[in-house]
Specification:
2 copies of one chain form a homodimer.
Chain A (H helix, E strand, L loop, with lengths): L2 E8 L3 H21 L1 E9 L5 E3 L6 H11 L14 H7 L4 E4 L11 H10 L3 E4 L3 H16 L4 E2 L11 H5 L7 E7 L2 H11 L4 H10 L8 H4 L2 H14 L6 H4 L9 H9 L3 E10 L5 E10 L13 E7 L4 E7 L3 H18 L1
Parallel strand pairs in A: 1-2, 1-4, 4-5, 5-6
Antiparallel strand pairs in A: 2-3, 7-8, 7-10, 8-9, 10-11
């Protein structure tokens, strides 16, 4: 019994390309072990053109062409002209894979892309957390009304199982709270500062290896972490929360002196995320720098790794650690969602 | 759409009772959120009698009765006489919950209990790892031939999602190896030795709080850990491995001097489990004491907590930490398996 994924790829940056490579790598395994065959019917990019082929694009050729020529248009069989939203409106397929650049303050245009995909009757799978924070309930209802899935495993901690954990293995458990390190960029910056760099120098290093963006404030000021906290709380605790309500405190105020002092005490500064209900039943959600000692599971979360520890009514502490993520890790989260969407249809 | 679990409880020790309490605690939630109603049609113990009631036992009364009188027989409506195997042969139900004491060298009598339950057309769910190590393939085939499930989430790391992770969220990923701390008893003993106790004193303390058994060699000599390694390798890597092949090295050889020396270097001794394929494609599996520093995720695994880090083809390091387990944690693993078995039927 073979299921066919006809995949519509909106976005073909690092993550989109890693997803394409993972599909090629796992083609036989997916067919033989999971009864899943796939076709990519279209790829749309922001500045490298788009290509639609209802018979299925040659994915290896697409990767090679965009690498060599900087444009996909030579592979287009549909004389496509338009933007990503137009592309989603006309490209044939049953699963939308959404990995376009997103505005962290609005979740757009990813939110509209997903809405359009679902409205057309496709499953919608995204690596973006914006649409989760700004549209979870609306998009989930829309998906349900079409008998489709809106999935986003890669939105928090890349491909590490978080959302899928709660819809499967943790069914029957209630989430009471969590804490952890959800922004890998600041985790790396603080580590560089422990090595003697100023924040500015650490940011420059981060930019040189592609970890920090030109405007690093989204990470440094705690907004990326706050969006992830809001996503976890909204989806897993059924408590709609916006990043603004988290009122994040970033790492800009951490001085080299504070770093030195912590090191002298055998401690490390970490940007710690936490949310939940406290003893008195009061809800809290925060992102702020804290020092942690070697007996904390956060201490060994180094480099771009991340960690979250869940407090559940039946498991006092369940920690998930993701070490050394890469775009391939994120790509796996997307693939895992594809398998779930087509299994559950 | 309500599913009904008619539960047959073989074993009513700490874990069996914790499972009964969890059922009572979650009765409404299970019905309202998961469409699952349950009846316990029978409970069989080794030395506190047995009770069968095809209409369903009053679970709160059963817990109270065994606590107060030391015997369940006053609740029996079937004039039951016999051992646990006889009980499984005649007690009506659709899910067997197996938590009887097990011989770690043979997996018996748990293995026979599960075989009997499956042969009668029940799903078989156990908290025992013995049947997994000594009967995984046979019992899984038997279950499949009846359209039933053989499940054992609680066999390794109590209720933390391990096996369920691989049949759900990690579908599409290949496990290449793992390392971690799987025996919580030795982890606690080593911690007590860091506090200045000898191994003998630490074992006496462990016995006083119910962590170590009268004969602690199963834990101290690494056999419990080796059985868990064998279970993970057999089930998750598709490589049938026996505990003997692991050739475990326990913690008996660790001297107070070695502990002091490690502490002076800022390190800790841990009983580390590991298995996988090395760079040259050679398979390895081991249990042995190792020192770890604060940058290792094993360093902060204190007390009776446990941790495993998986190396997958798509996730370079996925760690699962379970902090402060209790019989309730193990009970949740059983409940999680019940939900899965009845969902998938």
């Amino acid at each position: 019994m073979t299921k066919e994924a006809r995949l519509v790829l909106a976005g073909f940056g690092n993550v989109g390309k890693a997803f394409a490579r993972l599909l090629l790598q796992k083609e036989n395994e997916l067919r033989e072990e999971h009864g899943l065959s796939f076709t990519v019917t279209g790829i749309c990019t922001g500045s490298h053109g788009a290509a639609i082929d209802p018979q299925g694009l040659d994915l290896a050729q697409a990767l090679d062409t965009v690498e060599r020529t900087g444009s996909l248009t030579s592979l287009d069989r549909a004389s496509f002209l338009g933007n990503t939203l137009d592309f989603i409106e006309i490209c044939p397929g049953n699963v939308l894979i959404e990995t376009t650049p997103v505005n962290p303050r609005s979740g757009q245009p990813a939110l509209s892309h997903i809405e359009a995909g679902l409205a057309r009757g496709m499953h919608a799978i995204t690596a973006n957390k914006g649409p989760v924070v700004y549209g979870y309930q609306h998009l989930t209802r829309l998906a349900e009304s079409r008998g489709k899935k809106f999935l986003f495993e890669s939105a928090v901690m890349d491909g590490a199982p978080i959302f899928s954990l709660f819809r499967g293995p943790l069914l029957g458990a209630k989430l009471l709270g969590f804490s952890g390190i959800l922004n890998s960029c600041t985790n790396l910056l603080l580590e560089r500062m422990e090595g003697g760099e100023t924040l500015t120098q650490a940011i420059a290093y981060g930019a040189s290896i592609g970890i920090t963006e030109t405007d690093p404030s989204n990470d440094v000021d705690g907004w990326d972490a706050a969006i992830k906290v809001a996503a976890l709380v909204t989806v897993l605790m059924g408590y709609p929360l916006t990043p603004l309500e988290v009122q994040p405190v970033g790492i800009r105020g951490i001085t080299p002196q504070q770093i030195t002092q912590a090191t002298a005490q055998g401690k490390k500064w970490k940007l710690v995320c936490a949310a939940g209900w406290d003893e008195s039943g009061q809800f809290y959600a925060r992102v702020r720098p804290e020092t942690v000692g070697p007996d904390s599971p956060l201490f060994a979360v180094t480099g771009t790794s991340s960690f979250v520890q869940f407090k559940l009514d039946v498991l006092p502490g369940l920690g998930i650690l993701e070490s050394n993520p890469s775009p391939k890790t994120t790509a796996f989260g997307l693939l895992s969602d594809v398998l779930y969407a087509l299994k559950e249809k």
